[in-house]
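INFO  loader      accepted 1 record
INFO  loader      residues=224
INFO  predictor   begin
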Amino acid sequence: MGLLTRILAPIIDKRISAFQNSLMATHITEVEHIYSQMRGWRHDYHSHMQTLKAHLQLQQYEEADAYVTKLADDLQQVDIIIKTGNVMVDAILNSKVSIARSQGIHVNVKAIVPPVLGISEIDLCVIIGNLLDNAIEACGHVANEEERFIRIYIDVLKKQLYISVANARAGEMKRSGFSFLSTKRASGRGFGLIRIDAIVDKYGGYVNRQVEEGVFATEVMLPL
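INFO  predictor   done
INFO  writer      dumping tokens
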């Protein structure tokens, strides 16, 4: 490592960490809003049923049908809550999945995370957040919306936290040696792959990236 690199590395890492921590605060705020929406819907449930019953008693069937449609639309907005067992992971997953679905991406999630971890929750959420940011961006380049997908699987396997994210992709992946290159260019972006690898290395974990036709997949193993 050159002298300039040694001097700049702590500065760059500090900027990246500040950027990621700021994003985490945003994600937590977003999921708190989602939870608030759900609590509000449950609170209003009795009133909704009374209104619907009144329409039916007055034989206002078209009004009743319109009301049910409106309720279904409202419920769809809050029916995305993912509960892994870990509050901070819930925050990041719900935030990213909400963004993905709003862009017409089909998302399948199976996630179980211990409430108490031997690794930093911030580090874990940075890994998950960057994996999903990359997956969402890749799906955005897939022209056919029906082919856009993200599959997320998180669980404990052999005393290690296993994270798998697979997504649709279009075009060729850029590589440098054994590593894949990010195509992100905007300020604050492009640090994702670096951060994932650095955090995995920090805990003595393992990261594996695979490319198949139309699919990009990443596996991460973190010792617990």
